[in-house]
Amino acid sequence: MVTKEVLRKQLRTSRQALGMEEREAYSQQITSNCLLFLKQFPKIRHVHLFLPIKKLLEVNTVSLLQSLFDLNYHVYSSITVHHAQKMATVKLTPKTVYENDKLGIPVPKDPVLMDDPKIVELVFVPLLGIDSRGNRIGYGLGFYDRFFKELSEDVMKIGLSFNAPMSEELPHEPHDIPLDGCIHPGGITLFENY
């Protein structure tokens, strides 16, 4: 089996091969699919969303963020607490002003920290790749696996990807927490573990 690091490199190269227009078109399709997904779960009102890191060429979630505000969702994101190797949950509003942190991650200029992140019902997760069992290849720092442990056990974890889930099983460790589904330009895939 190929190692996670080799896969990360291959998946980054594949992402870099997408042109800017193609990434934006895919991001819009993913946004539309996220909104269709949310219609299937009308009780969900508290959504955690990653903000796209431009240098990593991530799915652009800016229009999804605006749509969530327009639909009156409570929206949260995270700031990275580097010395503690963890993420802290912050509340976002339509009036939130953003700046990039030292790693180029968009964060609120004046973050409003959440005391209890267990209120989050759905987390949209960035990733490089995912398999049909929900095993994800992220950036290798484990921030999301640690973050998931701070949330409710029944929180829904959905990856956003430019690619559909891979059929072959990806390498994973016992501490890796699988996702419940993946939203990609071609649709919505929920995994058996959900």
UniProtKB/TrEMBL annotation:
<dbReference type="GO" id="GO:0035999">
    <property type="term" value="P:tetrahydrofolate interconversion"/>
</dbReference>
<keyword id="KW-0479">Metal-binding</keyword>
<dbReference type="GO" id="GO:0009396">
    <property type="term" value="P:folic acid-containing compound biosynthetic process"/>
</dbReference>
<keyword id="KW-0547">Nucleotide-binding</keyword>
<feature type="binding site">
    <location>
        <begin position="4"/>
        <end position="8"/>
    </location>
    <ligand>
        <name>ATP</name>
    </ligand>
</feature>
<comment type="similarity">
    <text>Belongs to the 5-formyltetrahydrofolate cyclo-ligase family.</text>
</comment>
<dbReference type="GO" id="GO:0030272">
    <property type="term" value="F:5-formyltetrahydrofolate cyclo-ligase activity"/>
</dbReference>
<dbReference type="Pfam" id="PF01812">
    <property type="entry name" value="5-FTHF_cyc-lig"/>
</dbReference>
<feature type="binding site">
    <location>
        <position position="58"/>
    </location>
    <ligand>
        <name>substrate</name>
    </ligand>
</feature>
<dbReference type="GO" id="GO:0005524">
    <property type="term" value="F:ATP binding"/>
</dbReference>
<keyword id="KW-0067">ATP-binding</keyword>
<protein>
    <recommendedName>
        <fullName>5-formyltetrahydrofolate cyclo-ligase</fullName>
        <ecNumber>6.3.3.2</ecNumber>
    </recommendedName>
</protein>
<dbReference type="GO" id="GO:0046872">
    <property type="term" value="F:metal ion binding"/>
</dbReference>
<dbReference type="InterPro" id="IPR024185">
    <property type="entry name" value="FTHF_cligase-like_sf"/>
</dbReference>
<keyword id="KW-0436">Ligase</keyword>
<dbReference type="InterPro" id="IPR037171">
    <property type="entry name" value="NagB/RpiA_transferase-like"/>
</dbReference>
<dbReference type="InterPro" id="IPR002698">
    <property type="entry name" value="FTHF_cligase"/>
</dbReference>
<feature type="binding site">
    <location>
        <begin position="136"/>
        <end position="144"/>
    </location>
    <ligand>
        <name>ATP</name>
    </ligand>
</feature>
<keyword id="KW-0460">Magnesium</keyword>
<feature type="binding site">
    <location>
        <position position="51"/>
    </location>
    <ligand>
        <name>substrate</name>
    </ligand>
</feature>
